[in-house]
Amino acid sequence: MKAARPRRPVPEQLSRREREIMHAVFALANRASAEDIRVRLVDPPSYSAVRAMLVRLEAKGHLRHTEEAGRYIYQATTSPASAKRAALSIISASSSKGRAISYSPRCCGKSHGPTRNSIN
Hints:
Elements lengths: L15 H12 L6 H7 L6 H13 L3 E6 L2 E6 L3 H17 L24
Antiparallel strand pairs: 1-2
C-alpha cells in the first residue's frame, strides 16, 4: 500500500491578506518572523491577527515554522518559482474560461477601459 502524499497547497484558496503575507515571506528571502511580516503589510493588522493568519496558512500547507531563539521563523513550503507558476496557471485557466477583460493601452490613444466586446 502506498503512503499518502502530503497535501499540495492550492493558491486560489488564499484570501487577499493571505496572498500579501505569502508575498512578504518570499520578499524576506523565505525566512521571516511574524513581526517581520507584519511591518511589510499594507495597513498592518495587530500582531495577534498576523499570528492567527500564519497559523491558518500553516494549516492550509503554505507555510511551516521553526523555532530560533524563542521566535517562530516562517518559511513557505513551495519555492517562489513554483508559486509563480501556480499563479500563472490560475490566471491562464481563468482567461481560457472567458473571465479575462482585455484593456487597450493608454499610450496608443485608445480607450482607457474594457471594450464592450471584451467582457464575456
